[in-house]
Write a structure and sequence with these properties.
With about 130 residues, the chain is an alpha+beta fold. It has three helices and four strands. A hairpin with a 2-residue loop joins strand 1 and strand 2. Helix 1 (about 1-10) packs antiparallel against helix 2 and helix 2 runs antiparallel to helix 3. The relative contact order is 0.16.
Length: about 130
């Protein structure tokens, strides 16, 4: 609300321009830290020993949730990931678009892309990188 006004008037003041740029940058950083906090809270008591890794991101109202379990994970273990996802969705805006992947795959490498948005990595998985 204030950002368009400040951006319009920032052209007249270099100091204001730096402040607006910083504020816009920080709002993106705070949003990514906020989703990480939401994920950590949602995972309390919901991490079975078969969960290998979890990637979560919220970018432009698109929530991506990718949980990978070992091949021997039970349906209850996969259901725990759904519970975590439900808790995360409950704290997101109403118009969020969901991209959900919950799978069993003991062989899949844990590092997806550069490892950005990795929220959980099981102990011992680093040795398989």
């Amino acid at each position: 609300m204030l950002a368009p006004f400040a951006q319009r008037h920032a052209q007249k003041s270099p100091t204001l321009l730096r402040a607006v740029s910083w504020a816009l940058c920080m709002s993106k950083t705070v949003a990514s830290m906020d989703i990480a906090r939401r994920v950590q809270i949602a995972m309390l008591g919901e991490v079975p020993h078969t969960l290998r890794f979890l990637y979560v991101s919220l970018i432009d109202n698109k929530l991506s949730f990718h949980a990978v379990f070992t091949d021997d994970a039970t349906d209850d273990h996969l259901e725990s990931a759904s519970c975590v996802l439900t808790e995360i969705i409950a704290s997101c805006p109403r118009n969020v678009v969901l991209n959900e992947i919950i799978e069993r795959d003991s062989k899949k490498p844990w590092k997806i892309g550069g490892g950005d948005n990795l929220m959980y990595l099981r102990y011992g998985e680093l040795s398989h990188a």
